[in-house]
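A reminder before we start the practical. When you read a complex entry, don't treat the lines as separate problems. The point of joint prediction is that each chain is placed relative to the others, so the output describes one connected object in space. Small molecules and nucleic acid strands, if listed, are placed in the same frame. In the example below there are two entries. Take a minute to note the order of the lines before looking further.
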Amino acid sequence: MNDPVGLAGTGHPEAGPRGTVPAASVPPDLPGLAARYGLAPVGARPPLGAYLRELWRRRHFATALARSRFVANSTGDRLGMAWNVLRPLTQAAVYGLVFGILFGADRPADWVAFVTCGVFVFGFTSQALTAGARAVTGNGGLVRALRFPRAVLPVSVALQELYAMLPAIGVLAVIVLATGEPVSWTWLLVLPALALQALFNLGGGLLLARLTADVSDVTQLLPFGLRTLFYLSGVFYELDRFPDPYRQIMELNPAHAFIAMIRGAFLEGRAPGLSPWLVAGAWTAVLLVAGLIVFWRAEERYGRD
Amino acid sequence: MTERPPTVVVNDLHVTYRVKVPGRGRRTTREVPALRGVDLVAREGESIGVVGRNGSGKSTLLRSIAGLQTPTRGRVFADGHPSLLSVNAALIGDLPGARNIVLGGLALGLTPRQVAAKYDEIAEFAGLGDFLQHPMRTYSSGMQARLRFAIATAVPQRVLLVDEALATGDAEFRERGEERIAALRAQAGTVFLVSHTLAEIERSCDRCVWIEGGRVRLDGPASTVLGAYREVTKSGRLGRLGRPGRGRAQGGGSA
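Here is the predicted structure of the whole assembly.
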């Protein structure tokens, strides 16, 4: 019988005398029925390529979400948007003062600009990773209500942190200028450096968002990890202090590489060397690819139990 | 013989929640089966009421059909992307309703231009007036329901899942919601309606599914199923909550 629908009728009034049909009498071959009418499995994770295309289609969602959140976050406190700059600024003042006194004459000559660059650049990644870890778990309302590729959320967080970084970079430029550094063409390198760092943050955010969704304890450990990284990244000292094998190893730290890139661009006498760019570029490429794949693989699980 | 094409096929659907239970000394993880083998076929133009007591698996069933809950076993097939309207999702509470309209539209895959074109219609349907500028977390549950309903139905889908979303609304909103449901059915769409207001199901549904202990207990014409359901609830033969059917809260093991 060519009746693909397999009537056994789910009890539709038109199904005739078997008005009240117990569930047992639904058609025998349900997957076959679905296939004949071209019904697709719901909630199934698309292949990576299709997933990335879906993600690209939601780019307006990602940017609009980042902008809305950025504005909303900045209206909560009395000083609002200014905190995006005041936070790293007070941090730089504290570390600058403490380690300035501690190191005494041993500190780098361009101390104020040196520390400020370090704190601002490290803060960018630190903030972005902290927020990225909560990108999925902190958006339960959206995730439970609407269907969209979840990678939009880490992307939007990375963008939001980039928006917050832009005014901070402006202030950083003013500080650098005030300490007597001359304006130079190398300042232009700040923009690609920030773009690369934002992509690095995205890769890290994707990984951490997945990890946090799997094991919520990650958010407890993350601050310690970031703090350790902070002290290892040459925020307030130069790696030259260390003997040879150690110095080379420490130069492979991506956080140090990003700091070195910005210092190389802003500070005279610190030539924008190629090696931090290579280190940062390699880390970014690896983290971004790994982050996308790792995040995508758990797509079906976010926001569910 | 003609039968209308299916829009949703639910095949042997099992969903088991893992619940961490804080205990003395160590924390245990209990497995709570919410759905235990549901088979269901919904067809074009059908409006299906879903009844059952609290915790019987109604919401889990709808979340699974929407693709928001991964089956432990079995599968759900559907035409397009069913959109779910439930009472307990607040979108982005910190942002004003107006931003939620835009973001919700974009999240559903509309372009910024399409969102702009639909904005007025959505805002009008939500009927929130000046409250649209207030953060969504300050809304009453009825106001939240209105806004979510307006957003989710702005992108027409073939399958609409309504989980008590009309329950918190006022009479006017319910009426408009029911109108939208009727319009969707007229375009050969399918509607699932979870409600404890049996009269609402009687009004809007021709078919009804009764879920009990994670299984389909009865599936048929709304009048028949509702009649049987009323009789059993009245006589109190369903037993105590928390011990429904065959061992819903059983399981165990430690983590």
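Discuss with your neighbour: Residues 197 and 222 of chain B are 13 Å apart (CA to CA). What might explain this?
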